[in-house]
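Anyone up for a design puzzle?
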């Protein structure tokens, strides 16, 4: 018997291959190689009229399909192919939500999909974005954002408890209700109904009469579909409440709305680009002359997180952000993204002990991270080191300022630069934004997102006191001429990026300081010295004796930025709630990303865009609660 893996790893499906056909080790075929695909196409495309419904999705709209078991992804690929054939030519999104308790390994998935050359182009993208086998929710953005797959690895009931979505159509396998325990049947049906709305369609094959009755009692008006002799009967139905009249399948109608984003840092620019890709009108506002001018304006930034020894919600959020950002940045490889790999150095006794406990208590796929001894670490980084550490092969470093400028250049993003926001208020169903811009002194939008970093509290239209903190961080530009450059990012007490052609010379960026009580906007000699001493403590062989002791070369350059963090060091993302917990219509926050903004921003921008557009959420409920805006209100102290 295969031992249960440690978290966050999940147990993959165990397959035997006979004559090129996979069989479950528990008995029976894993799937029917040729007819399995025909049934969902017959059941879902013909009686469900998906081709017509796809074509009717309006600008900036979406169509949501949910499925109870992902398997090899054949239903998903069939739906994606149909979306490409029949979906609208304007910007709209196919959202597909699925779960799998025992997912296929990438190798087995590739082998299964090789039997379907008609899906070749789609399969290649799926395999390229297929997540590592770790528990929880994974968001895959495919077809340049026209297709989004939310894939949950873990127990099915947990998936439907955690995921936030309303389906337009369900694809269900016949064994979803194949249990003798009525309590499990009832719970499953309740979950399906929870994620359905009047007009949601359902198609299910191989269903017993008593199970059909359970579905009909729950609100699905089921019909029998005609099937070929070699296929089981397929049932198809509409969801309706007990008191409502029969409702035909609906065409999702999400009218495009205007969205204003205040703040053109990495979070604001990613959100603006995300929403513009989905077909929304976006206005990006910033007090600086261009995007990426504040804390996101560094020449280099390391993309990493520090995963906790215990696999709790905080670690899961960091891990989800890491895996999503790695795929997100892949499309910018060779431009602004440099996936050199990253070493988290076991640079001190306490960090060595922490990493030892981390490795003992957790199980991560090697494609994500692995411990490496000193000799291998030196080979990977090209640096002389004192110890090994944790190697992240798909991490690296980014040019954040250049990426911000590229994201803000989307044709769907209207930029209002050199413009501070004076006032933000709502009336007549619109948000009215008063600015200092000579050309755009008054702007209106249906929805507003505040992404202004440590300045965000000043913009929230509220008299509350908020629990945000601004932390000064200074980086130092280290010329390659005075210090050997590694081939990969090395981080520990600080970080060192490989040298690159920046500002006309070969530079690597080190830092950053963590100055809790300083508001100094300019670089200081003291902060440069702090960075150099931290680097020397982490990698003693990197610097000469004089530099290691804090003697600085003349005209050492750098940059200061102010990170925005929170009292619990977790980001803030989502619809704004006042101190009483009331959600304010059309107002969102995306801030408090701290020193890991380059890693968190892609996933949190995706999550906030999901909320704004009413599409399935990229984060499960348990993680979304950790980002809730209400927790940022300073509790009132009772009078004595």
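Challenge accepted. My sequence:
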């Amino acid at each position: 018997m295969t031992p249960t893996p440690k978290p966050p790893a999940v147990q993959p499906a165990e397959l035997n291959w006979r004559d090129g056909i996979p069989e479950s080790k528990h008995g029976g075929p894993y799937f029917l190689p040729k007819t399995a695909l025909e049934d969902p196409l017959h059941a879902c495309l013909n009686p469900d009229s998906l081709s017509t419904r796809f074509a009717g999705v309006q600008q900036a709209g979406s169509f949501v399909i949910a499925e109870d078991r992902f398997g090899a992804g054949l239903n998903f690929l069939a739906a994606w192919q149909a979306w490409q054939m029949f979906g609208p030519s304007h910007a709209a999104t196919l959202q597909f939500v699925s779960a799998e308790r025992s997912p296929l390994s990438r190798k087995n998935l590739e082998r299964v999909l090789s039997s379907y050359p008609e899906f070749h182009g789609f399969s290649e993208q799926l395999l390229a974005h297929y997540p590592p086998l770790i528990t929880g929710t994974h968001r895959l953005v495919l077809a340049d954002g026209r297709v989004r797959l939310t894939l949950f690895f873990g127990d099915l009931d947990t998936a439907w408890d955690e995921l936030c979505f309303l389906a337009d159509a369900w694809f269900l396998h016949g064994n979803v209700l194949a249990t003798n325990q009525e309590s499990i049947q009832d719970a499953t049906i309740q979950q399906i109904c929870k994620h359905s709305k009047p007009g949601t369609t359902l198609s299910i094959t191989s269903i017993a009469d008593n199970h059909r009755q359970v579905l009909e009692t729950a609100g699905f008006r089921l019909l029998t579909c005609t099937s070929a002799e070699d296929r089981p009967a397929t049932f198809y139905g509409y969801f309706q409440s007990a008191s409502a009249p029969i409702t035909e399948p609906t065409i999702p109608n999400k009218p495009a709305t205007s969205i204003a984003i205040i703040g053109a840092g990495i979070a604001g620019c990613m959100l603006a680009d995300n929403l513009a890709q989905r077909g929304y009108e976006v206005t990006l506002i910033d007090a600086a002359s261009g995007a990426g001018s504040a804390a996101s304006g560094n020449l280099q930034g390391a993309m990493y997180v520090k995963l906790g020894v215990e696999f709790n919600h905080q670690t899961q959020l960091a891990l989800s952000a890491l895996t999503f950002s790695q795929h997100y940045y892949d499309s910018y490889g060779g431009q602004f993204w440099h996936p050199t790999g990253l070493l988290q150095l076991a640079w001190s006794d306490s960090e060595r002990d922490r990493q030892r406990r981390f490795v003992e208590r957790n199980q991560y796929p090697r494609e994500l991270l692995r411990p490496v001894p000193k000799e291998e670490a030196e080979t990977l980084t090209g640096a002389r080191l004192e110890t090994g550490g944790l190697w992240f092969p798909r991490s690296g470093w980014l040019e954040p300022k250049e990426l911000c400028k590229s994201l803000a250049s989307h044709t769907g993003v209207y930029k209002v630069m050199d413009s501070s926001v004076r006032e933000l208020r709502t009336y007549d169903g619109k948000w009215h934004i008063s600015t200092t811009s000579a050309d755009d002194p008054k702007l209106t939008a249906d929805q507003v997102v505040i992404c202004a970093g440590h300045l965000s509290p000043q913009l929230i239209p509220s008299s509350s006191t908020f629990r945000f903190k601004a932390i000064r961080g200074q980086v130092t530009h280290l010329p390659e001429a005075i210090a050997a450059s590694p081939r990969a990012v090395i981080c520990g007490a600080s970080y060192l990026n490989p040298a690159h052609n920046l500002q006309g010379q070969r530079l690597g960026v080190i830092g950053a300081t963590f100055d809790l009580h300083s508001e100094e906007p300019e670089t200081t000699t003291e902060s440069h010295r702090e960075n150099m001493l931290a680097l020397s403590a982490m990698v003693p062989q990197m610097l000469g004796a004089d530099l290691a002791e804090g003697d600085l070369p003349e005209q050492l350059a750098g940059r200061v930025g102010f990170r925005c963090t929170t009292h619990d060091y977790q980001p803030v993302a989502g619809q704004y709630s006042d101190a009483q917990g009331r959600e304010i219509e059309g107002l969102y926050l995306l801030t408090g990303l701290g020193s890991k903004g380059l890693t968190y921003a892609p996933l949190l921008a995706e999550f906030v865009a999901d909320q704004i557009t009413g599409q399935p959420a990229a984060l499960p409920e348990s993680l979304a609660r950790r980002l809730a805006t209400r927790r940022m209100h300073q509790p009132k102290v009772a009078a004595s």
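A detail worth pointing out: The chain has a mean pLDDT of 89.
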